[in-house]
């Protein structure tokens, strides 16, 4: 399939909405949206931090405006915050505490997203066609993926915890397994099924079932445990909190992608934790409804993240829209690498080693019962981001999405579009050349030939 990504440049904060509108038009527009249909905009709202720690209020508001102008019957702006913010109450089932008490809804207000969206509703006299909420309000349902070779199963994670290697030491992991409620009470009635067999799947928001279309509103940032967070990883926000806790037990391990290519145990490809093998699978339940991926990249985070950093933001002054999650992440990585390798206010090619998972961060910083004020665990940049030869198509999360066919298969399927020369959002020659070269750099490594059979290579 041919995927389109449009990139525009904009340094004027008052024109972010217009820039977002332009890239959406260049990426194909919203012809998929018919009057009377419903849309869910899923912004990145991991915390209550201001943009770029969370999605851009201006970008969210403009997308709401565009949907309403096309006659959408209802536009939902919905997410579920990081479990560290929400798991203390009703974390297991995700019970809804009410609009005024829900932490996710409160964070929509604190980030400025609620005000920006409500202003659009007032301008268009359409407040009754906008609903800002948490996925907890409608709840989750059980969705099985047994026919799609998903990695979302109990045994896959259990084997990683027994056989994978720790990021910090390289030793074999021996972590305790956190049981998964998803597998606890039900086993599909398959021939030979037993009570010990895991079910591949996840709890998915009922709101996404109800919607006609979904828009992925992400941000461009490094991540202290996951190297980067963009369109693919934004879907962690759809997970029920207990599923989210279950998946994060893999964050201190190395992935096993080196096996397929005969690479060494210390190859840089292994710095992504193995739960990146699960991120693309989160999209399988509603992939046919995911129409558009959008990011305001006027400011990007180059070290640390997702919620904090010890460096100023890089002023990339870009916005982008993509037709699928693979092309969105590949081009967004080009933007992030522009910051790490080229931008005058970037890293100039000097990565800062990241903590190898939260356990190492705690061990390294929590000494003598004191947390040194000058130290900050939310720092660090993966070395691959500063390697000009590493292909964006070879990151594990993107490889897995390619194996599942969730967008562009490779550079030949990617179509880059920029505003015409002389337009208000013309991209500078330097940035245009960088993004084009970096996004179209061919992958060097093979995909997993067993990827659709529950990733047997990853379990060896």
Description:
This protein is about 25% helix and about 15% strand. It has about 450 residues and is α/β, with parallel strands linked by helices. It has one domain (about 5-460). Helix 11 crosses helix 14 (about 430-440). The protein starts with a strand and ends with a helix.
Please identify the structural class as seen in this structure.
alpha/beta
Taking pLDDT < 50 over at least 5 consecutive residues as the criterion, the unreliable ranges are: 186-193, 364-372, 453-460
Count the E strands: 12
From the alpha carbons, calculate the radius of gyration and give it in angstroms: 21 Å
Task: Quickly count the helices.
Answer: 15
Provide mean pLDDT, rounded. 88
Distance between the termini: 32 Å
> Helix-strand pattern, N to C?
EHEHEHHHEEHEHEEEHHHEEHHHEHH
Largest sheet: 8 strands, mixed
The percent of residues in helical segments reads 25-40%
Strand % is 5-15%
User: How many domain modules?
Assistant: 1
For the largest beta sheet, what order do the strands appear in spatially?
4-3-2-7-10-11-1-12
Q: What is the general shape?
A: globular
